[in-house]
């Protein structure tokens, strides 16, 4: 039949964050002024991408852009700070444009 895999996870009860997962690795939260923002992962397996990502945030603390290698994702929000659109480019070529129903995120 199927394969059963047991995964372990450690949790920081004081801070309210996951510190390790056996399928991911050790998670670090070292962003100045943002104690709950994940800053990096020390991968435990090859399942976690090794390429560095650059992430920018809006003034209202939502993701604005994510860049990795030759891919760039940009996010648009409405006046209620709800995500309404995502555009992914490979270089200057569109890969996907996704619209989100209002209030879905």
Task: Please provide a written account of the structure.
- This protein is an all-beta fold.
- It has 2 domains: 1-48, no CATH class; 51-105.
- The protein is 0% helix and 47% strand.
- A 5-stranded antiparallel sheet has the order 5-6-7-8-9, with no helix packed on it. A 4-stranded antiparallel sheet has the order 1-2-3-4, with no helix packed on it.
- A hairpin with a 5-residue loop joins strand 5 (54-57) and strand 6.
- It is globular.
- The N and C termini lie far apart (37 Å).
Q: What characteristics describe this protein?
A:
mainly beta; 2 domains; five-stranded antiparallel β-sheet; about 100 residues
Quick overview of this protein structure:
Helix content is 0%, strand content 47%.
Secondary structure topology:
Elements: E1 9-12, E2 17-21, E3 25-28, E4 40-43, E5 54-57, E6 63-68, E7 71-77, E8 83-90, E9 93-99
Antiparallel strand pairs: 1-2, 2-3, 3-4, 5-6, 6-7, 7-8, 8-9
- What do the pLDDT scores average to? 85
Percentage of residues in helical conformation: under 10%
Number of domains: 2
Round the Cα radius of gyration to an integer and report it: 17 Å
Segments where pLDDT lies below 50 for 5+ residues? none
How many β strands by DSSP?
A: 9
Strand content: over 45%
Shape descriptor reads globular
Number of H/I helices = 0
Oligomer: single chain
Tell me the major beta sheet. 5 strands, antiparallel
Structural class by sheet pairing and helices: mainly beta
Order of helices and strands: EEEEEEEEE
Enumerate the strands of the largest sheet in spatial order, edge to edge or round the barrel: 5-6-7-8-9
